[in-house]
Specification:
The complex is a heterotrimer of chains A (305), B (299) and C (333). With 305 residues, chain A is mainly alpha-helical. Chain A has helices at residues 2-29, 33-38, 44-54, 60-72, 86-121, 126-140, 143-157, 173-180, 184-199, 202-209, 214-226, 228-252, 257-266, 270-298, 300-303. Chain C has 333 residues and is α/β, with parallel strands linked by helices. An eight-stranded mixed beta sheet of chain C has the order 7-8-9-3-10-11-13-12, with helices on both faces. Classes of the chains: A mainly alpha (305), B mainly alpha (299), C alpha/beta (333).
């Protein structure tokens, strides 16, 4: 088990490095960043001044190394727009996004796993078809449209929930649903498929022959085995939600890292964008690492090897 | 006149697997319904010029925000109403279908080519090549797609071509994963080993033996990625960093209607429903193909 | 005196695409306390489904019907699922064929041993634990206490099957149904497990329904034998009757397939029964064995009933007992 963790750790680090290189090179992809910074009416001298000030005159590799070094020590540079350290900016917004993501995946799991498990016990029944229908519909709904519809329905017509802002937990309800429902079909299908497979095994037959109650068979014996791959999927989906938070936060004006990303992109605030891409990627890498480890730990065959 | 010794028609009474598959395809609800709708949308897109009652770019500030036909104040001049610049909504919707389908098809093709090439290479050659491709896939998966797409579009300017290229170069991961798995599975089959024993070149084996068998899975993933591309483009355009106005991208139409959605919900509902119906149908086609070609994988 | 378990005309039907499959057709038997009944037959004759039917854990699509199905005086047929599950693992236990897949890979041996007795008899965890250790030692597993914390994948097939046996004994059942428990094991381990079952039966006094296709196994442990073919019993009787005076052509055929040291001549060919089992979809027309039987006649087109030939020796065949006594497979060909 330890060897497994170490191997995965190495892989995670390698991936993180590669992502950092891509993220760094983003700055240079649209031409000379000094020109972008200096603005439209700048003279050659102005551009050159910017170039020297921001170190763009150094060799690219040297810039990368220094950028990476800074990044690892927590220096993400300064925002072009605010002038304040990017690190502070990002860290102040990240908790909102992480909360949103966590709530969204919890919401998705709380709905999908029981639905998938019960659908598996009654294949082709009404509840099975309803579950599959929800899955199919969920996959086809654009999240931003769903969010807007919810706003019209719940905030305006019914007046139950606030439209935007992030001051109370009420404000998180609609964003959570808008972000979380997209993961529901995948998790539900995987749970259902896994449960159907598990319910046909010999050891479930043994549990029945021992006279265990149906609830116990379903939720202890079967689910424990079927849920193993779902854990991995949930972690990956959480990572995707960070990406999707850009849209959702913008719609609901939630003051999180996703909203910051969108605004920074619109303002060409490159250091912030770079840092956010790095952070989101690192979080994703960490999540997949954790999920692999959790996956391996949940299966006693791997855990005790 | 000679009588046939063997009645070939009787001897070959059981239909071939291909014929059986075609029969299943004819009866599969998902395939028929989904395929039908996609076909209708495609026809609307292709013949938008004939079908659209008006020019989608034609503004008429005297005829702004007219309701659709089923509400008060609607008229047959503008069956689906007009937007805030007086442009006919139905026409915009029809021309918007072109954009969505174009994005879906071209993006899926680009990412399909990239992903399939990587997948086949990894699956066929295995070993270090496989490890490298898996690493690339992992790196790609670690990148937040929407964020990177937004940044790329901001850098290179928003336009249909940029969006297609950016998404095409980002959405190949599922292709690579699925094709790699399928290639590995096919590769271990006996007929591949026979071909190798006969001395066929690698390229020949890949092209003639492996590729045809990948087709089924490939089609399913194509539909999935088409749907994904359409939704993501709509999202990008909604945020203003995708297709630029005045193009009638459905996502853009939703964005433009956002300010009025509280009073005139139909203005965002109509393009949203169009998006939903198109993506839903594409998914149905994918499900149908999966059911028909591999019924044992059915959920 | 009332039998421990008594079954009359048990049938199982499964709707399939081509019609109605009837893998079990009118099975009847009874078993007394402490007795061993062996149900013998080739693969696909319906013996496993019969055992699942007795426990009422058939797959959902299968339909069970019986004139009588009684256990310890309780009619099993109308019993609710709750009451039936209270019997399972408690008064009637079952051992399955493949020990490699019959245990849950995600829970410890101890957990799986103890959960049954805790549910059925409400004992404390400590009491359950003690009983588990006691039984593990009884089935010949060393270091029993430490085994409780192990997972199934850490034990060999033979050990896992011993654990399964211990598991069936946890609640001191009156009846154990064993569905080919030794088929998946090595021959040497087979012998050990059989010996173990016999010892445990002598010590704890439970009845045993043992399902197998292996006549060698039957010879070792059976008190009563039921020979099953194509979903129905074709001959039943005591072990002596079946082995010394087999009547039904199928039984005779089975016995002639086994070489017996001392009796079978060197160089002589082992018997084999040509042909295949008929399809059981929509029932069987006439005697199920007639397509392979060397003495089949037109009368075999109507399936005969199971009838007494001697005391407790039943037979399903149109031919008379005297004719069958003299019939052998070699002379009939």
């Amino acid at each position: 088990m330890l060897r497994f963790i170490i191997k995965r750790l190495f892989l995670a680090v390698a991936v993180a490095f590669t992502v950092s290189m891509i993220s760094f090179s983003l700055l240079f992809m649209a031409g000379d960043p000094a020109i972008a910074l200096a603005g439209e009416s700048a003279t050659e001298a102005d551009i050159e001044a910017y170039r020297v000030q921001y170190g763009f005159d150094r060799p690219i590799f040297e810039q990368y190394v220094s950028w990476l070094g800074n990044f690892l020590t927590g220096d993400f540079g300064k925002s072009y727009y605010f002038g304040t350290p990017v690190f502070d900016l990002v860290m102040s917004k990240l908790p909102v996004t992480m909360t949103l993501g966590f709530c969204a995946i919890t919401f998705a799991i709380l709905i999908s796993i029981p639905m998938g498990a019960i659908a598996a016990t009654r294949p082709n029944s009404l509840i099975d078809r309803v579950a599959l229908f929800i899955a199919v519909v969920g996959q086809a709904m654009p999240s931003f449209w769903f969010a807007l519809l919810m706003i019209v329905a719940f905030a305006v017509k019914l007046g139950w929930l606030p439209v935007s802002g992030s001051s109370s937990w009420y404000h998180f309800i609609m964003p959570t649903i808008a972000l979380g429902y997209y993961a529901t079909p995948a998790i539900m299908r995987l749970t259902r498929a896994g449960m159907m497979e598990v319910l046909g095994t010999d050891y479930i037959r043994t549990a029945r022959a021992k006279g265990m109650s149906p609830t116990k068979i379903l939720f202890k014996h079967a689910l424990r085995n079927a849920v193993i791959p779902v854990v991995g999927l949930a972690a990956v989906q959480l990572g995707f939600m960070l990406s999707g938070s850009v849209i959702i936060e913008s719609i609901f004006a939630l003051n999180g890292a996703g909203f910051l990303a969108f605004e920074s992109i619109s303002r060409n605030d490159f250091p912030v964008v770079q840092a956010l891409i790095m952070i989101f990627s690192l979080i994703y890498v960490l999540l997949t690492l954790l999920s692999d480890v959790l996956n391996a730990w949940l299966d006693p065959r791997i855990r005790t090897a | 006149m000679l009588k046939p010794v063997v009645n070939l028609a009787e001897a070959d009474a059981t239909p071939s697997p291909a014929a059986q598959m075609r029969r299943r395809a004819m009866r599969n609800m998902s395939l028929l319904f989904g395929g039908g709708v996609v076909l209708i949308v495609a026809l609307c897109a292709i013949f938008a010029g004939f079908l659209a009652p008006q020019d989608p770019y034609q503004q008429d500030l005297t005829a702004r925000l007219i309701s659709p036909i089923w509400m008060d104040g609607g008229s047959w001049d503008h069956i689906l109403g007009t937007d805030q610049l007086g442009r006919d909504y139905l026409s915009r919707l029809l021309f918007g279908a072109r954009i969505s389908l174009f994005i879906g098809v071209v993006t899926a093709l680009i990412s399909g080519i990239i992903g399939t090439t990587l997948g086949v290479t990894a699956g066929y050659f295995g070993g270090r090549v496989d490890a490298v491709v898996m690493f690339l896939i992992t790196v790609r998966l670690s990148m937040p797609v929407i964020l990177v797409a937004l940044a790329a579009v901001a850098l290179f300017g928003g336009s249909l071509q940029v969006v297609v290229l950016v998404l095409g170069f980002l959405l190949w991961d599922r292709f690579a994963v699925v094709i790699r798995a399928s290639t590995k599975q096919i590769r271990s089959q006996d007929y591949i080993i026979s071909a190798q024993a006969l001395g066929c070149s690698q390229t020949r084996i890949i092209m003639t033996e492996i590729m045809p068998n990948l087709l089924n899975n490939l089609i399913v993933v194509l539909t999935l990625e088409m749907a994904a591309a359409i939704i993501i483009e709509a999202g990008l355009s909604f945020l203003g960093l995708g297709v630029q106005p005045p193009l009638p991208s459905w996502g853009l139409m939703i964005a433009e209607g956002k300010d009025m959605m509280l009073f005139l919900p139909w203005i965002i509902t109509i393009p949203g429903v169009a998006l939903f119906v198109l993506v839903f149908s594409i998914n149905l086609v994918g499900d149908g193909v999966r059911d028909v070609t591999a019924p044992e994988n059915r959920n | 005196m009332q039998s421990l378990m008594s079954v009359e005309n048990l049938s199982v039907e499964i709707p399939v695409g081509a019609g109605l499959l009837k893998p079990v057709r009118g099975v009847s038997f009874s078993i007394e306390k402490g007795e061993t009944l062996c149900i013998v037959g080739e693969s696909g004759c319906g013996k496993s489904l019969t055992s699942l039917a007795l426990m009422r854990i058939l797959p959902k699509v299968a339909r069970l019907s019986a004139d009588k199905m009684e256990f310890s005086g309780t009619d099993l047929k109308p019993l609710s699922e709750r009451k039936m599950s209270a019997l399972r693992g408690n008064k009637i236990s079952m051992i399955f064929q493949d020990p490699m897949t019959s245990l849950n890979p995600s829970f410890t041996i101890g957990n799986q041993l103890m959960e049954g007795i805790i549910r059925h008899q409400g004992v404390s965890r400590k009491e359950a634990r003690d009983r588990a250790v006691f039984l593990l030692e009884k089935v010949g597993i060393t270091a029993a206490a430490s085994r409780l914390a192990q997972f199934p994948h850490q034990l060999s097939g033979g050990l896992r099957q011993r654990v399964m046996i211990a598991m069936t004994l946890m609640c001191s059942p009156d009846l154990i149904i064993a569905d080919e428990p030794t088929t998946a094991l090595d021959v040497t381990i087979q012998a050990k497990i059989l010996g173990l079952l016999k010892e445990l039966q002598a010590e704890f006094g439970m009845a045993l329904i043992f399902i197998t296709h292996d006549l060698g196994v039957v010879a070792r442990i059976a008190d009563k034998i039921a020979v099953m073919y194509a979903g129905a019993f074709v001959e039943t009787g005591s072990a002596e009757q079946i082995f010394n005076a087999p009547m039904h052509p199928y039984t005779k055929g089975l016995l002639s397939c086994i070489p017996v040291p001392g009796k079978t001549e060197r160089g002589s060919r082992l018997g084999s029964i040509p042909g295949v089992v008929p399809s059981l979809i929509n029932g069987v027309s006439g005697c199920g064995f007639r397509s392979r039987c060397p003495v089949a006649t037109e009368e075999c087109a109507i399936e005969p009933d199971l009838e007494n030939v001697e005391a407790d020796h039943q037979l399903r065949c149109v031919h008379s007992a005297e004719y069958l006594k003299k019939m052998t497979w070699e002379t009939a060909e």
